[in-house]
């Protein structure tokens, strides 16, 4: 795996701060959410932990499956 440069380390990712709570409230496991959205399970984990910023289509897919407004995932 390639080591991050200092410039890359300075960029703080936000992920989806409320995703874990919303997913658990809906009663879904990581695997179930991955199956329902078509997004890889490890990607969802990275989004929940803030190690990765979501793509707009990912936010829309996840919001649709969780039956929440997209804004509730990112704010």
In short:
By secondary structure, this protein is mostly helical. It has 6 helices and no strands.
Provide a descriptive summary of the structure in words:
It is a single chain. The chain has a single domain (13-74), classed as 434 Repressor (Amino-terminal Domain) (Orthogonal Bundle). 60% of the residues lie in helices and 0% in strands. The longest helix has 11 residues, at 56-66. The protein is mainly alpha-helical and 75 residues long. It has six helices and no strands.
Report the CATH architecture: Orthogonal Bundle
Form type: globular
CATH class: Mainly Alpha
Q: Which fold does the CATH topology refer to?
A: 434 Repressor (Amino-terminal Domain)
The helix/strand order is HHHHHH
Q: State the helical fraction.
A: 55-70%
Number of strands: 0
The biggest beta sheet is recorded as:
none
Report how far the terminal alpha carbons are from each other: 31 Å
- Can you count the helices? 6
Using only C-alpha atoms, the radius of gyration works out to 13 Å
Q: Percent of residues in beta strands?
A: under 5%
Low-pLDDT runs of 5+ residues are none
Domain count: 1
- CATH superfamily, by name, is lambda repressor-like DNA-binding domains
Output mean pLDDT. Answer: 87
Structural category is mainly alpha
Task: Spell out the key features of this protein.
mainly alpha, single chain, 434 Repressor (Amino-terminal Domain), 75 residues
Task: Describe the SSE topology.
Blueprint: H1 6-10, H2 19-25, H3 30-37, H4 41-49, H5 56-66, H6 70-74
